[in-house]
Amino acid sequence: MSHETNSLVPDQLTEQQRLILVDWLIQLADDEFIIGHRDSEWLGLCPTVEEDVAFSSIAQDEVGHAAFYYELIQELEGVSADYLAFHRPAHERKNSLLVERENGDWAYTIVRHYLYDLWDQIRLDAMVESSYVPLAHGAKKMKREEYYHLIHFQHWFTRLAKCEGEARERMKHAMELVEQDLDDLLDIGVIESDLISWGILTKPPVEMRSEFYSQYKELCKDLSDGSERRIIFSKQVSKGRMGQHSPALASVLENMTEVIRFDPNAQW
Amino acid sequence: MDSQLLEEEFVKRVQSGAKIESNDWMPDGYRHLLIKLIHMHAVSEIMGVYPEKEWVPKAPNLRRKLALMAKVQDEMGHGQLLLRIVEDLAAPYGKGREELLDDLVEGKVKFHNVFHMEARTWADAGLIGWLIDGAAIINQASLLSTSYAPYARILKRICAEESFHMQHGENVILSIAMGTDKQRKMLQDSLNYWWYSLLFFFGPLETTPAAQKMLHYRIRTKTNEELRQKFLAKYVPRIWSLGLTIPDPTLHYDSKEERWYYTEPEWKTFQKIVSENKGPKSQERIALRRFAQDQHKWVRLAMTTEV
């Protein structure tokens, strides 16, 4: 049965639809929350004061998007957005491994964020006509902000990639590291076919992934040595979407919950 | 006209309320004082980022996290705006952004005492927004009438943003003050830790020769003690209304003399923190700045190289 033309109404979802939708929203929310958190760690440490200000705006946008997704889940699950953001243990989190990695150097930061944003753009494009109307509305709004993020990181990426010497070496190394996590980022897990059949996504993930990889191959041409880059993708099975994370996420969460743990009965 | 006459003319102008622009003629002494004052202000804004930035990852809910991120970003933005002013003033000496920030790492420019201190708890993070930004507004609002026009223009914007910060801090503090016993204890402890740093923030009682010169040139128009009295008048009643105890049993208002009496901070101890970067967190935070300066040289080089 095709559901493509029917909107999904929040209080008329079947149990299975609700579960699938929540799984997807958690992936989106956790991705945005953790990358925003990592971005915020850069404040005061960026290459220029101007970049500190710009990067902080991006961090705030990402955390704001996470809050939006968590609120959608709150409506479906009756669990507060704050609980979802702060109280879930690592094994319940569905962010990709890429966003939880430690910040590394500026080259890694730029490559990671640019590729993450490229994927996020493709993801948002596939949601602007979503059958789940609250999600479609949000996607349209977020796309307007992500447009500026993309320009920002594209500028950094091409500039650094086209340089000689240390910048180029660092960029190459960063790309090798990020490439290992790309399959995990682009994975959606077992809910993929349901997202399509219920019209939550309007573009098949297979096509989304091939769009991403062709854009990425195009970008690799920016590396100044002009040589054909062989992209090596990790063959490992996806982990992030299954709640399997690196120790980096555990330490983020440990840090994040310090105040909450100080007095669990308190309002802050 | 000889320089003596030019100087007299200049002083007459500023004392009658004239405003000076960056490309107007100005005495070297005036320029030096401005550079010293605004450079210190700029790097203080930047160093003020670190104590609160440490609490961004730990902010206890989404609303607080977003608010604190925005606040800390504003402080960095103030640093940037102020550095632009110092760059114009220091241009005749061949000093630019890179050198002005190197001065910080090399200990050649000082920053406010409060940013040498440790932000130990979430209450400290809130109190910084409430009382330190509150103190900063009093200081900066008094500079709005400064004779140097570019500084006055930027201060107008800074004061507007700082008053948001003060409200943000006040809101964080109110939640804690209305909270559990454990939270209230945390808040009292925070006030105890910051109180004398806050008093020192306004500077020594006596008007130093440099401060005297700033008054002469109308760079400043109020003394340290006048500003400290304003702070006490505004915040002591608010602190008391939260049921907190100010850690100074001698503190009182003399209504005849219309002034607050208080136990003075240990001037020498605090002075040493500022002049020798010997506060609990001075070196650690300067090291973060050094990281930003040194580790990213390759980035700044790449961004300025022709490709």
TrEMBL record, chain A:
Keyword set includes Oxidoreductase: yes
UniProt-listed GO biological process terms:
phenylacetate catabolic process
Species of origin: Croceifilum oryzae
- Read off the InterPro entries from this record: Aromatic_CoA_ox/epox, Ferritin-like, Ferritin-like_SF, PaaA_PaaC, PaaC
Q: Which NCBIfam families match?
A: PA_CoA_Oxy3
Q: What is this protein called?
A: Ring-1,2-phenylacetyl-CoA epoxidase subunit PaaC
Q: Name the EC number(s).
A: 1.14.13.149
Q: Would you tell me the Gene Ontology cellular component terms? A: cytosol
List the keywords (alphabetical). Answer: Oxidoreductase
| Gene Ontology molecular-function annotations | phenylacetyl-CoA 1,2-epoxidase activity
UniProtKB/TrEMBL annotation, chain B:
Q: What is its EC number?
A: 1.14.13.149
For this protein, the record's Gene3D superfamilies field holds: 1.20.1260.10
What is the uppermost EC class here? oxidoreductase
Q: What is this protein called?
A: Ring-1,2-phenylacetyl-CoA epoxidase subunit PaaA
Molecular function in Gene Ontology: phenylacetyl-CoA 1,2-epoxidase activity
The family database entries (Pfam families) matched by this protein are listed as: PaaA_PaaC
Name its GO BP terms in alphabetical order.
Answer: phenylacetate catabolic process
**InterPro entries in the cross-refs:** Aromatic_CoA_ox/epox, Ferritin-like, Ferritin-like_SF, PaaA, PaaA_PaaC
Membrane-traversing stretches: none
Cellular component GO terms, alphabetical: cytosol
Keywords carried by this UniProt record: Oxidoreductase
NCBIfam families from the UniProt entry: PA_CoA_Oxy1 (TIGR02156)
